[in-house]
Design a protein that fits this description.
Layout: H1 2-5, E1 26-27, H2 30-39, H3 41-44, H4 48-54, H5 57-69, H6 72-82, H7 89-102, H8 111-118, H9 120-132, H10 135-157, H11 162-174, E2 186-188, E3 194-196, E4 202-204, H12 211-217, H13 221-230, H14 237-245, H15 250-261, H16 268-281, H17 287-296, H18 304-311, H19 321-331, H20 343-358
Parallel strand pairs: 1-2, 2-4
Antiparallel strand pairs: 3-4
Helix pairs in contact: 2-6, 5-9, 7-9, 11-13, 13-16, 16-17, 16-18, 18-20
Length: about 375
């Protein structure tokens, strides 16, 4: 996803809206937008009511301290887990005030929570300054109207039962693992990226809802929806241990470092492989798009994703996705994940294998 966000820079806003078809697919949160505006203040300061804050040295210093220690996604995650009403700004301020007491003590030592608690005075100062400058009215009168047209256009083009069909496929893919009810509460925020929330929702840029940009930049909001919901699949400690063992291999390590530079890596390859598989099955990815996704997503650094993808048809009906991946690591049909001494061969094999199945011509990549 990051590859599209570094290419395009557009101001967007957010709203809450429902529709008879796929009702409740999109939601918004004034509080999430307020917390996200700290990271995105460069966009906000262009509006007259906030321009004076950009010249306030105390505000700028507090803003820098926050952005040096945390990100919008972490602030929104904290609010999603421990906050109050997501559309009441007073509740957002109350949350920042009460944070040390409402976040369980055992969580205080987790690095991301600790980082937020360490800058709580600056958070309160910046948020109060934004609210005093008129953020609530700005959100009501400017943010909502601009996004409303985009939401309505998206709904108009969305075939009936599209989301229901996707939810069914996600549940079928997860089986025999039983997921909680597929979450269709997607927050469209005044941001230029997307991030997953720990309460199984995700926050998304309205960029993905623009049909013209979708054509130009090959975006697809529903593929992102599939991707984020697949993060709900269980990933066991045993599987993550197998994954960490690969760090000793130079081939994997080199590509993983590239992925990490995009804030990806880790189990992301598992999710990408599953999303591409499901999206292709649902007709949302062409054969060519399957190949391009593996070659282009985070600079083609998720080298396990295409390897997993080409073996997904070997998954047993009785296996969860986690069990299937463990089998590939431990004693799969070719045992290719046991040693990334074979990873280079496996990657080349994958391109050739995908090419032979799709009829596309793909030049083999020699490392």
């Amino acid at each position: 996803m990051k590859r599209i966000l570094t290419t395009i820079s557009i101001y967007f806003c957010a709203l809450t809206i429902c529709c008879a078809n796929n009702q409740g697919l999109f939601r918004t949160s004034k509080c999430y937008d307020l917390l996200s505006s700290i990271q995105n203040f460069d966009s906000l300061k262009e509006f007259p009511q906030f321009s004076s804050l950009a010249a306030d040295t105390s505000f700028v210093k507090a803003l820098a301290a926050i952005n040096d220690n945390t990100r919008a996604s972490k602030l929104c995650n904290a609010y999603s887990l421990y906050g109050y009403d997501k559309n009441n700004i007073e509740d957002c301020i109350k949350f920042l005030t009460d944070m040390p007491g409402i976040i369980p003590v055992e969580e205080h030592n987790s690095s991301w929570i600790n980082s937020i608690l360490g800058i709580r005075p600056q958070l309160l100062y910046v948020v109060n300054s934004l609210v005093t400058a008129g953020y609530s009215d700005y959100w009501d009168t400017c943010v909502f109207p601009r996004l409303n047209d985009k939401i309505n256009s998206y709904y108009a083009d969305l075939p009936k039962h599209t989301v229901d069909n996707i939810n069914s496929e996600i549940s079928a893919f997860a089986a025999p693992e039983i997921l909680t009810e597929t979450n269709t509460n997607i927050y469209i925020l005044d941001i230029q990226n997307a991030f997953n929330l720990l309460d199984e929702t995700f926050c998304c840029t309205p960029l993905l809802l623009d049909s013209e940009l979708e054509k130009t930049y090959h975006l697809d909001f529903l593929k992102v929806y599939i991707h984020e919901n697949l993060h709900r699949l269980n990933v066991s400690n045993a599987l993550m241990e197998r994954l960490s063992d690969l760090a000793a291999d130079d081939f994997y390590k080199e590509h993983e470092e590239t992925a990490m530079s995009h804030n990806e890596g880790g189990n992301e390859a598992f999710v990408v492989a599953a999303e591409v598989f499901l999206s292709h099955k649902l007709g949302r990815r062409s054969d060519k798009d399957v190949i391009n996704e593996f070659k282009e997503y985070v600079d083609g650094s998720l080298v396990l994703a295409p390897i997993i993808y080409v073996h997904l048809e070997e998954r047993l009906p009785t296996e969860t996705y986690n069990e299937f991946l463990l089998r590939l690591f431990d004693n799969g049909t070719s045992g290719f994940l046991n040693s990334l001494t074979l990873a280079q061969f496996s990657e080349l094999f994958c391109w050739a294998y995908i090419s032979s199945r799709t009829g596309s011509v793909v030049p083999l990549l020699v490392k």
